[in-house]
TrEMBL record, chain A:
Keywords: Cell membrane, Membrane, Transmembrane, Transmembrane helix, Transport. The keyword Membrane applies. The lineage of its organism: Bacteria, Bacillati, Actinomycetota, Actinomycetes, Kitasatosporales. This is Iron ABC transporter permease. It is found in: Cell membrane. InterPro entries: ABC_BtuC-like (IPR037294), ABC_transptr_permease_BtuC (IPR000522). It comes from Streptomyces venezuelae. Coiled coil: none annotated. GO terms for molecular function: transmembrane transporter activity. The chain crosses the membrane at residues 26-47, 81-98, 110-131, 137-156, 168-188, 212-237, 257-286, 298-321, 328-345.
UniProtKB/TrEMBL annotation, chain B:
The chain crosses the membrane at residues 27-50, 84-105, 117-140, 147-165, 171-194, 222-241, 261-290, 329-350. InterPro entries: ABC_BtuC-like, ABC_transptr_permease_BtuC. Gene3D superfamilies: ABC transporter involved in vitamin B12 uptake, BtuC. GO terms for biological process: siderophore-iron import into cell. One of its GO terms (molecular function) is transmembrane transporter activity. The keyword Transmembrane applies. It holds the Pfam family FecCD. PANTHER family: FERRIC ENTEROBACTIN TRANSPORT SYSTEM PERMEASE PROTEIN, FERRIC ENTEROBACTIN TRANSPORT SYSTEM PERMEASE PROTEIN FEPG. GO terms for cellular component: plasma membrane. It is found in: Cell membrane. This is Iron ABC transporter. It is a multi-pass membrane protein.
Length: 352, 355
């Protein structure tokens, strides 16, 4: 497979490479901050950065206009921006981890059925229990994501075809088609879940309050901690199972932690935003291009890039079809699919 | 002649030559195909007979061949026949389309659902259903929803073909490009549903899962003639296609222009899938399952076209019958085929991996 490349010798040696990676991450953080400011300012009602600042500040002001600004900034723009950053980090890190653990360059949480598992679970509990608040069904989205993820990985890792990108993609697509039909069946027999489903299914970071965002943040944080724990082992695993075992890695434990991290990250992001495909795939490749194959750098880069890309896609969606809005998930797909096609076309990976 | 020579000759099926056409006579394949056709006809009659006003099999057959009472004629010919016929045509079209794509991609899992064709048709249909406006209404009136969906499927199929083209078509690349294009069509469809009026959404959603409800003779007629014409083309070209299983070089040596043959067949597969989607919506998994079942029944190394079509018809009409009668709430046929197709896909994946 094309992506597991030997680290190229860097001119200037290890210290130089390290300096460049630090500089790169600082630059990424700055880009992210800029995107956050733009995200707070841009929308159906454009605000200047000064207005945004006044909207955020707690200083009392009798001005009617400020109250309006404060309302827009605090109840619409801030939750939306926070969610885009959190979900972007989660999907980026999740994508990089999945690619690392499956050693499969086209692994992506969206393409592998994890999203459709979450969708199905959400629709099912809305139809069965009449949940209306995302806070209630966020838990079930996890269960759905986890079950679908385990099924797809289990299917793809049976026998000789294990690790073949095509097998994994097909298993994911098959499970997705199956679950999509089930989801539609439930939605058609229950009008409430049909209505919830269509908003949820487009993949959007808008319209969710902090009551949903806080649990998501908690899950994503837990996933990130697990991801950090597993990074050194992930580097060794990519030398091959035998080498890793020889170097003292508990392979089964490390895989379990890795898949748990991916499930927490993808499940939380999907529960809050709906399915967003291609984001993890895209940013993992970008991160690998920027940092090289060391997962201790690759994964944090992928997280930062994920936040930047999702935020930029959300902003672009607000601007592209004014006065309407294009959901972030749609913009990401429109950007990600050509990216994916180019990867395939350039023969970056072959059938095993 | 020694004993072993006779045995070796007997193992090779006898060839038949009729003018310019020559083929191998395989009694087993023909038998299986005929049996499947008979089974499909029986389920077809059962589907016409079963309903709120049940009609016995003998009366169904009598009415279909031209006789029958006035009441039976009305219920059968005006109400139930279009639906059953749509199931038959769509099943045959999906089965043959799947047999072609699986043969061309040399992968048992390649099917129009996965290659993005049904997704493309779905986007166009949902667009027309949900975006009410001057242009859309005019398009629906003039070409019909079915025709527009067909065009969408064809366009997406061609897009996938050209995106996957790189000094030839490789099955692996074709499938991956198909999956990515499918993902885009899904995203756009989801967005269209968000922006639509809730009343249109239910209609679009029901269409998206594949359904045979409320088919009229007009809907069936177009699909029927298109499928017949395309099947004729496939039958002619299929003779050229056989040698392709021996590899491109051998095929070229035998005088087959393999790029052209493959392109024509893929075009037919895309059109067949498009016709099916335009008539019944993107019914999932039939195109995937039917050729594989037919291949196992007929004991062929590659999916047999005619038998695949028959299995497709059997599967679709049978699934529609179950969806209509056996379930507590009436569901679209696509839900039933997904329930059958999902586990079958898993079985295929595991089998392919273990081999």
């Amino acid at each position: 497979m094309g992506t597991i490349a030997v680290e190229r010798p860097v001119p200037g040696g290890v210290a130089e490479a390290r300096r460049r990676r630090v500089a790169g991450s600082v630059a990424l953080v700055l880009v992210l901050l800029a995107a956050v400011v733009v995200s707070l300012a841009v929308g159906a009602r454009a605000l200047t950065p000064a207005e945004v600042w006044r909207g955020l500040s707690a200083a009392p002001d009798p001005d009617q206009r400020l109250t309006e600004i404060r309302l827009i900034v605090r109840t619409v723009r801030v939750p939306r921006t926070v969610l885009a950053v959190v979900a972007g980090v989660a999907l980026g890190v999740g994508g990089a981890l999945i690619q690392g653990y499956t050693r499969n360059p086209i692994a992506d949480t969206g393409l592998l059925g994890v999203n459709s598992g979450a969708s199905f679970a959400v629709v099912l509990v809305i139809a069965l229990f009449g949940f209306a608040n995302p806070f209630q069904y966020v838990w079930f989205a996890f269960v759905g994501a986890a079950v679908a993820g385990v099924v797809v990985f289990g299917l793809a890792s049976i026998g000789r075809g294990a690790g073949n990108p095509l097998t994994l993609a097909l298993a994911g697509q098959g499970v997705t088609v199956f679950l999509a039909a089930m989801t539609t069946a439930v939605a058609l027999s229950d009008k409430a879940s049909l209505n919830a489903l269509r908003f949820w299914n487009a993949g959007s970071v808008a319209g969710v309050g902090f009551d949903v965002i806080w649990p998501v943040v908690a899950f994503v944080a837990a996933g990130l901690v697990l991801a950090l724990i597993t990074l050194p082992a992930l580097n060794l695993l990519n030398l091959g199972d035998d080498v890793a075992r020889g170097l003292g890695v508990n392979i089964a434990l490390s895989r379990t932690i890795g898949i748990a991290a991916v499930t927490l990250l993808a499940g939380a992001a999907t529960a809050a935003c709906g399915p967003i495909a291609f984001l993890g795939l895209m940013v993992a490749h970008l991160a690998r291009y920027l940092t090289g194959p060391d997962y201790r750098w690759l994964v944090p880069y992928a997280g930062l890039l994920g936040a930047v890309v999702l935020l930029v896609c959300d902003i672009a969606g607000r601007l592209l079809v004014r006065p309407g809005e294009l959901d972030a998930g749609v913009v990401v797909a429109l950007l990600g699919a050509p990216f994916f096609a180019v990867l395939v076309w350039r023969g970056k990976f072959k059938s095993a | 002649m020694t004993g072993t020579e006779v045995k070796a000759l007997a193992a090779v099926p006898p060839g038949v030559r009729l003018g310019p056409v020559s083929f191998v006579w395989r009694p087993w394949v023909v038998c299986v195909t005929l049996l499947l056709a008979a089974a499909a006809f029986l389920v077809f009659c059962a589907s016409i007979g079963v309903g709120e006003f049940p009609i016995g099999l003998s009366r169904v057959i009598a009415t279909v061949v031209g006789g029958g009472e006035q009441v039976d004629r009305f219920v059968i010919m005006d109400l139930r026949m279009p639906r059953a016929l749509a199931g038959l045509v769509v099943g045959v079209a999906l089965g043959i389309s799947g047999a072609i794509t699986q043969s061309v991609a040399r992968n048992p899992l390649a099917s129009p659902d996965i290659l993005g064709i049904t997704g493309g048709a779905g986007v166009v249909a949902v667009f027309l259903v949900t975006v009410s406006g001057g242009t859309a209404a005019a398009v629906v009136d003039s070409v019909g929803l079915s025709g527009a969906a067909l065009a969408g499927g064809l366009g997406t199929g061609l897009l996938v073909y050209f995106l996957a083209w790189r000094r030839g078509i490789d099955g692996f690349r074709l499938i991956l490009i198909g999956i990515s294009v499918s993902a885009v069509t899904e995203a756009v469809t989801a967005w269209l549903l968000v922006t639509a009026d809730i009343r249109d959404v239910a209609r679009a959603q029901a269409w998206l899962v594949g359904s045979l409800d409320n088919r009229s003779w007009d809907d069936v007629g177009v699909a029927l003639w298109c499928t017949l014409a395309l099947t004729a083309v496939v039958t002619v070209v299929a003779f050229q296609f056989k040698p392709l299983h021996l590899g491109d070089d051998v095929a070229a040596g035998l005088g087959v222009r393999y790029t052209r043959v493959r392109a024509v067949l893929l075009l037919c597969a895309v059109l067949l899938a498009g016709v099916a989607v335009s008539a019944a919506g993107p019914v999932p998994f039939v195109a995937l399952v039917a050729p594989q079942v037919a291949m196992r029944l007929a004991k062929c190394p590659t999916p047999p076209m005619a038998a695949s079509g028959m299995v497709g018809a059997l599967l679709l009409i049978g699934a529609d019958l179950v969806a209509r009668t056996a379930l507590p709430i009436s569901l679209p046929v696509g839900v039933v085929t997904a329930v059958i197709g999902g586990p079958f896909l898993i079985y295929l994946l595991v089998r392919a991996n273990l081999r």
